[in-house]
Amino acid sequence: MSAAVPSAPAAPAAPAAPAAPAAPAYFMSRSDSGVLTVRSHTDGGPATFTRRLHNDLPRALFEIGEDRDNRVLVLTCTGDRFMADIDGAGLGDLTKPDQWDRTVSEGRRVMQRLLDLETPVVAAVHGPASVHGEYALLADIVAASDTTVFSDFPHPTFGIVPGDGIRIAREEAIGAGRTRHLTLTQGSFTAEQGERWSAVAEVLPLDQVLPRAQAPAEQLAAEPQSLTRYLAVTLRRRICRPKAEGTRLGMAPEGLIAAGPAYRGGEAA
């Protein structure tokens, strides 16, 4: 009687590939079709602009761009606002060169990596975007709630020049003349105005914004990836050069003012 041949042990199941890099300030999920939804938050609620959020985003964008399974990016927020609060004290003492250098480096990388993504980007804006609203305005498609207002809270509040990219994003989205006017008067514009000015594709009730943003994202994810990747690169080509040059020059006067007597960061925080 021959001895039974033992069967080979079953190979362990391969671990599932992560949908996106770990970034504590962002919740991420990816659909089977490759639509990656990135949602900013603070402790699970509406996002406050913090050092952690500023630090996480450029790293996350780099890894998102390196993963070809991410076919379309949907950038959104938590709750009823895109981003309207800022932890000024937590950003560090921006009057110190080393702190400002860190802020400059992170800020430039966020803008550049958003524009460098070889995937279409759709923004779903839920309410006020008074802190870094340019993240949404740089998207290829912008869907916004009827409660959305785009403004710039930090720069006039802290008494510094808006040199970190918001001016360039606004010029691309709503035009140079309107951007100069809003910057000098500390003005804002609503989602409805943004739609008339071609900065916003659609204005919807709050609860319809994310589902509506995900619809074109899924449609794009179904297209050949080579087509959508090169479409994204082509559509953003015009803004890439002025963005690169503008932030290098713009962050210098912003830092200069932050180091001078006009800076009100400590008071605002």
N-end to C-end Cα span: 84 Å
Q: Which class do the helix and strand fractions yield?
A: alpha/beta
Q: Provide the CATH top-level class.
A: Alpha Beta
CATH superfamily: 2-enoyl-CoA Hydratase, Chain A, domain 1
The gyration radius over C-alpha positions equals 21 Å
Parts with pLDDT < 50 across at least 5 consecutive residues: 1-20
Domain module tally: 1
Structure overview:
The chain has 269 residues and is α/β, with parallel strands linked by helices. The protein has one domain: Alpha-Beta Complex (2-enoyl-CoA Hydratase, Chain A, domain 1), CATH 3.90.226. It is built from eleven helices and ten strands. The protein has helices at residues 51-66, 97-116, 134-137, 154-158, 166-174, 176-185, 191-196, 209-221, 225-235, 237-258, 265-268; strands at 26-30, 35-40, 48-49, 72-76, 85-86, 121-125, 141-145, 149-150, 189-190, 202-204. The strands form three sheets. A six-stranded mixed beta sheet has the order 1-2-4-6-7-10, sandwiched between helices. A two-stranded parallel sheet has the order 3-5. Strands 8-9 form a two-stranded antiparallel ribbon. Helix 1 (51-66) packs parallel to helix 2 (97-116), helix 2 packs antiparallel against helix 10 and helix 5 (166-174) crosses helix 6. Residues 1-20 have low confidence and may be disordered. One of its GO terms (molecular function) is catalytic activity. Pfam families: ECH_1 (PF00378). This is Crotonase.
